[in-house]
Amino acid sequence: MIYLSRHGQTDWNLFKRFNGRTDTYLNQTGIAQANLQSQSLKDVSFDVCFCSPQTRARQFCEIIYKGSVVFDDRLAEIDCGEFEGTEETAEAMDLFWKAIQSGDMGTESIEAFIKRNCDLCEIIAEEHKGQNVLIVTHAANTRIINWFFNGRPKGYDFGNPVVEKCAFITFKNS
Questions:
Q1: Could you tell me which of 51, 34, 46 has the C-alpha nearest to residue 166?
Q2: What pTM was estimated for this model as a whole?
Q3: Of the options 3.40.1620.10, 3.40.1190.20, 3.30.420.40, 3.40.50.1240, the CATH number for the domain spanning 2-171
Q4: Best exposed site among 10, 67, 140, 146 by fewest CB in 10 Å?
C-alpha cells in the first residue's frame, strides 16, 4: 500500500500565502496535526519512506515516522517564483496557473513539475511493488501523485486538492 501524506499547517498556509520553495516551519497546529496522524499510522509497518527535503515536510515526517527516510528533491513543492510569499487571492491564483504553463515569472513549469513527480512515482511503482510506502510531501505534489497512481486520467483537474493538511490517502501497490 502507498500512503500519501501532506505536511501539516504552516503560518503561510494559515494566512493563505504562496509557499513553494520558501523554507517555512510547521506552526503549533501543524505539529498537533502531525501527532494526530502519527496515531492514525501507528499500526502500519512501512518498508520505505520518501519525503520532501523541505523543512515543513521533514518536521512532519519526523513526527509521524521513526525509521530511515529517503529525502528526495522531486518531492519539493513547485517553485512559485515571483508569487512566493504573496497572498493567494483569486486573481493571483489565476495569474499563477497561467505562469506555470510555461514557467513565466520565475515559476517552475507545470510540465517539469509533473515530470519530476512522475519520475519518482515510476521508481516507487517498480522498485517497491507490494511494499508499504510512505510519501510525505506538499499540496501540489499530492495532486500529481494522486493522478499518477489513479492511472493518469484524462481531464484530471490539478486545481482540486486531494489531501488536506495532515491527512493521507492510500493507493494499492501491487
A1: 34
A2: 0.95
A3: 3.40.50.1240
A4: 67
C-alpha cell at 72: 528526495
